[in-house]
## 1
Amino acid sequence: MLSALLLFLLPVYADWQYRSRSDLAPPQLNITIFDHDKASTDYLFVAPFSGFPDNTLHGPRQAAPYIFSAEGDLVWSGYSIFSIWNANFQAAKFNGQDILFSFEGDHNPAYGHGHGHHTFLNNRYELVKELRAGKHKLSDKHEFHIKDEKTGLLQVYQPVPRDLSEFGASEEQQWIVNAIFQELDLETGEVLFEWASLDHVSPHESVLPINPGYAGSGYNSSDAWDYFHINSVDKDENGDYLLSARDAASVYKIDGKTGEVIWKLGGIPGETSSSFENVGGFRFGFQHHARYLWTSEDGKKQIISFFDNSAHGTEDKHGHLVKINEVSSGKVVEVNTETWEAKLLKNYQAPYGLLAKSQGSAQVLESGNVLVNWGSEGAVTEYTADGEIVFHAFLESGELADKVENYRAFKYDWHGYPTEDVAVLSEITDDGETQIYVSWNGDTETKLWKFYAVKNGSKTYIGEAKRTGFETKYKVAETHEAVYAEALDKSGRILASSEPAIAIQQVLPFKAVAAQPETLQPNFLNYFSWRQQI
Ligand SMILES: *[C@@H]1O[C@H](CO)[C@@H](O)[C@H](O)[C@H]1NC(C)=O
Ligand SMILES: *[C@@H]1O[C@H](CO)[C@@H](O)[C@H](O)[C@H]1NC(C)=O
Ligand SMILES: *[C@@H]1O[C@H](CO)[C@@H](O)[C@H](O)[C@H]1NC(C)=O
């Protein structure tokens, strides 16, 4: 009886979040650490999805790109605006305009690949463009990165047949992934530069050999041996690229003119080759999201950041096949091409023992704080530059949190001006009062809501409420059959008005509370009862 009722109640966890938008069931962040003074006030950008093969009753109920406030309140649900499977949701500038972009496409969790395109929205959440890889190739999910507001870096997993016998393959094992990246002109889609791993990096550099097949066995093109697995591309001011190659457990610097490897930072001393000696023998592996942070004037020193998974496994969480460190971390490393030493400057270690078998990102914010996203573990942590944890959130709550994953997370200052209508729900309570709920998906500017009753063609001001979050509530003592809401910004300018909403009879959430409190465990008090209204 007890478990039957719990099963019945828990899957509805995401319901009743927003009365004005009962169509939305966004993830509810479980914020476990929050230092309001030290955490960034920027918005959080994530695109969580379920790691279960079927996603019917799992969290997130609506896998999509989301913007949350620093407090964890919903700002924008991209559900159904972006569709199919999404990852790498970011804000950026394109030709001086604020845009959002996200990868949309097919997801192949067993091989950690995704095939699709990169979709741009403007700051009104309207479609601006869709960008695909050039030269008859399919863009992969892992990278899309805009440089100088003009060009885009993306990557491709291109299966190609080769004689792989020197790597221990049988005659039937002929397929290998050529890891390619392209730099495209964002206006025209023209390919400005293309680089292919098989031209420059031997499959001997892989830490996952073709057999026993942890990175594909090469029997056919969908099972191609993913010896390199690029998952990020950056470019510095000199025009040279930085690649993270997960299956080589190494970060590479690539000459932007010749495509040659300038240096390689190997993650596992003694196992991976490296241009550097890792001072103190620090190790990393299966990393993601390598970014240039700083270059010395003479170009001989560079500081880079990346997410160190330190574990390899598939996204279905079937164990850790390889483990380099006990927990995952965000790392900041200085490389010196005079002394050929690499120094670990910062190591932002995961709380809760998190070890991300796949995915992940580390973003160094302008303030110096660092946002680390724990990929397959469905959580984000923000650190001060010194490594103090000032924010931590699991990307879902309760039962729905199980196997929620998120490829990358970012924090940005963002201003959204939605073109969609303001949503209003107006309810008449049993006491004859009017309870109003208002929201405007994606809006960041409204500070005050004004409410008006509409009767016989004329409107009457009935009150106002400070915007409190995604949805703002306001109650008036009288019965009003129709109301509408007006959004005002910080200077009192009217941003939008809703359509008049015809009031409905109030329906309150069914809240299960203990029927016989004295006989139940305290934890279950909230789950049992007869109908009781909040
Ligand atoms: C490709 O190879 C894998 C591994 O041997 C196998 O499981 C799969 O069925 C093959 N697919 C096709 C289409 O032959
Ligand atoms: C939030 O996360 C903590 C730590 O894992 C967990 O103990 C707690 O139950 C979670 N709360 C909810 C509401 O999911
Ligand atoms: C509704 O408005 C019309 C035109 O202004 C007026 O003639 C009529 O008396 C009003 N009806 C009520 C019930 O107020």
Note: Helices lie at 2-9.
## 2
Amino acid sequence: MELVNLKDASDKASFAEAVKKGLGKNQGLFFPTNLAKFDDIDAILALPFVERSVEILTKLIGDELPKATIAGIVERAFAFPAPLTKVTDNIYSLELYHGPTLAFKDFGGRFMAQCLAEIAKGEKITILTATSGDTGAAVAHAFHGMDNIDVVILFPKGKISLLQEKLFTTLGDNIHTVAIDADFDACQQLVKSAFDDQEVRVGLHLNSANSINISRLVAQVCYYFEAVAQLSSKEREDLVISVPSGNFGNLTAGMIAKVMGLPIKHFIAATNLNDTVPRYLKTGEWAPKATIATLSNAMDVSQPNNWPRIEAIIEQGYLDKSVLSGDTIDEEYTQVAMRQLAQLGYVSEPHAAIAYKALVRQLEPGQTGIFLGTAHPAKFRETVENVLGQPISLPQALAECASKEAYSVDLPNDYAALKAHLFSLLG
Ligand SMILES: *Cc1c(COP(=O)(O)O)cnc(C)c1O
């Protein structure tokens, strides 16, 4: 797999290099120079999930890693299912929350951890990442206990749910967590500053594990295939997928799946009030506003990191921009959608509910719709119980960590303070 920096065409990388570097020069994102298409998509869809995912990832990564190595990585990473659950006659939820931290980020996080362990073979690495909620938990669990790899996770203090926080602040060992007194965009900026700082980047062998890492993105392509594989051939004919979006990694992966030949007619980029992309799709003007805290906090992102990759897919002629439309769901409609889903017998959390609402608004007669269920409702228990007025039970993984002690350190939104902390921990 050859990749090129979208900000500097002379900065090229192999898959292994891009996985290790995360970002290219000038904070540019790596993007494949060529996206291959399957000749016989039905044959691919007929395979079981893990076997099919090995085919997809081999197609994307190429012969840089032996197929048997990719197979081992996939088997260890994708050890849980992605079922499609019927919600109405023509609407399904793709449940991506059956992994250890109960959100879709387990797919990318675990695949990335396994790739890095394979590629780095004993070299020392520091993973530095910012989380708006679920990335932190997925990355922390995926790397917990690995030799020679330290993980530092920044999160916006008090802006994510307590259970979300407990899932990654209670592990200890090689997992270090820092509560920053600011919002997620500020945390993301601190991470970028660290990558721009030669002394830190080289000295601590930094690697990023948020949705900009190419390994996470390619892993996510696989569950779009798994969704379509569970539909009848009739339902595959006119399919719309609604993606609850924050940093837009999930949607990027879906669009790559379509480029590879997966029969998806249309995508909906569903956001909360942090609606930079839906406004951009309507007006052509890129005008991020200050980030607003919402019920769907994992999508409280006003400057989505992955957007240049979606632009690249369109600009390079892989897809027409008409395959994508946006929709913004406000706080009230998020709750309305959760109640409507509950009436249909489907308990959901705010992120999935936003995707559902946008889908219902845009789905046309005769079409089949899928919305992505990005997190388990219990992960947002307080909100779900408040909105639905009914108690929900905690899965065992959450119940166990809810009672454990958290290990995070508090820091102000100040790069010098972060840098000093990093060297005191790891230097
Ligand atoms: C991260 C996250 C999202 C947003 O996904 P992106 O790939 O950043 O667009 C949506 N829902 C949940 C529950 C998440 O954790």
Note: The mean pLDDT is 94.
